[in-house]
Design brief:
The chain is about 30% helix and about 20% strand. The protein is of the alpha+beta class. The strands form 3 sheets. Strands 1, 2, 3, 4, 5, 6 and 7 form a 7-stranded mixed beta sheet that branches. Strands 10-13-11-12 form a 4-stranded mixed beta sheet. The chain has a two-stranded antiparallel ribbon with strand order 8-9. The chain is rod-shaped.
């Protein structure tokens, strides 16, 4: 008869075991009564920014001894931690100790009224009070920490928590359920890469196309120094700012052979109105780089006598010299010469080639005292 009366209670307890089976452990730093943390912050896991969180399966204890399967599984945990460390990633590890449920609930004594009820109560009366539970869970956590340290998991990466019997893994209605609650949960936290600005230019490294810009140098939205004149030499290195586009420059942005090239109509030395802007741009360059004198050379096509072409080529060079003077350039820095039909750059047998040859070229050869 007593056995028949016990069956409903046994069935209820077995069903309750599965009700707890999905429970998993998270970090409990704000709640745990007994805690140890070797991490750099007081609460490194509650509000951290993590790339990945890996929660390992429970490490089970039989009394004070870690189970054989769990000892073997420690190798997997240590290997995983080591792999992320080897990649240079910042990691943290929580080690949380747990025990079976506490048995110091005073309400348990209120149901000892019948024989079958006393048997049920005896299953719960194991004498595990809060202090004992926390001490045991502390031993579990420290044991796992020491075993991981033996496998090269630095203790400074770990945070210990002792939860006692506050969080059951399974129902305590059976001895099997109680045993599964005697455990340690290990979680690996892989921190997200920190957003840094290593060159202090105001652009984060993840968005910085020029991550080694010297400190103090002005940069664009991509973190690269400005090259205002487009000569390939950044402004902070450019000793000849404002070099006209297409000039060949040296390592400090100064012309190797600066050429202003203008073309003329047949038998003319007048600068075409559409080319005046080129003269103005070149004049601005000369104003900013007063260390240069210039040579203006005039040329013609092959039509006409040599003397006529020499004269016409000089008039073309001198027209450019006067235009630069009108732009405010010191006449002492400007020299004009006529080279006639020498040094053609185009085929004089074609209209296009002759047009190319009717030109002036301006070259910077000489240094000028500032």
């Amino acid at each position: 008869m007593k056995e028949l009366l016990m069956r409903p209670y046994l069935l209820l307890m077995l069903m309750s075991v599965s009700a707890y089976a999905g429970t998993y452990d998270y970090s409990y730093l704000p709640l745990g009564k007994a805690q140890e943390s070797n991490a750099t912050t007081a609460d490194p896991f509650m509000y951290g920014d993590f790339e990945k969180i890996i929660r390992f399966k429970a490490l089970l204890f039989d009394g004070k001894t870690l189970s054989a399967d769990s000892k073997e599984y420690l190798g997997t945990i240590a290997k995983t931690v080591g792999e992320y460390k080897a990649r240079g990633q910042k990691v943290g590890v929580t080690i949380i100790g747990h025990t079976q449920a506490l048995t110091d609930d005073p309400n348990e004594n209120a149901i000892k009224s019948h024989v079958y009820a006393e048997k049920v109560v005896s299953w719960f009366s194991r004498g595990l009070d809060r202090n004992t539970s926390e001490r045991i869970s502390e031993g579990y956590a420290k044991k796992v920490q020491a075993l991981l340290a033996d496998q090269d998991v630095d203790k400074n990466l770990t945070s210990l928590e002792y939860r006692g019997g506050q969080d059951e893994a399974f129902s305590d209605a059976t001895s099997e359920g109680r045993d599964l609650s005697n455990r340690v949960m290990v979680t690996l936290y892989v921190y997200a890469p920190e957003e840094i600005d290593s060159d202090s230019d105001g652009v984060l490294d993840s968005q910085d196309a020029c991550p080694e810009t010297p400190k103090g140098v002005a940069v664009d939205t991509k973190g690269c120094p400005f090259d205002t004149d487009g000569d390939g030499v950044n402004d902070y290195l450019d000793q000849c700012p404002g070099t006209p586009i297409s000039f060949n420059v040296d390592a400090v942005g100064c012309p190797l052979k600066a050429t202003l090239q203008l073309n003329f109509a047949t038998n003319s030395y007048l600068i075409d109105t559409g080319l005046q802007s080129k003269v103005a741009v070149f004049a601005e360059f000369l104003k900013k780089n007063s260390q240069y004198k210039i040579e203006i050379s005039g040329y013609t096509d092959s039509i006409g006598s040599d003397m006529y072409n020499l004269t016409l080529s000089f008039l073309r060079a001198n027209a450019v010299r006067k235009a630069l003077i009108n732009e405010g350039i010191d006449p002492m820095r400007l020299n004009a010469t006529g080279l006639g039909k020498s040094s053609p750059i185009g085929n004089n047998q074609t209209a296009e080639g002759r047009h190319a040859n009717r030109r002036i070229e301006v070259k910077l050869y000489y240094y000028y005292e500032k």
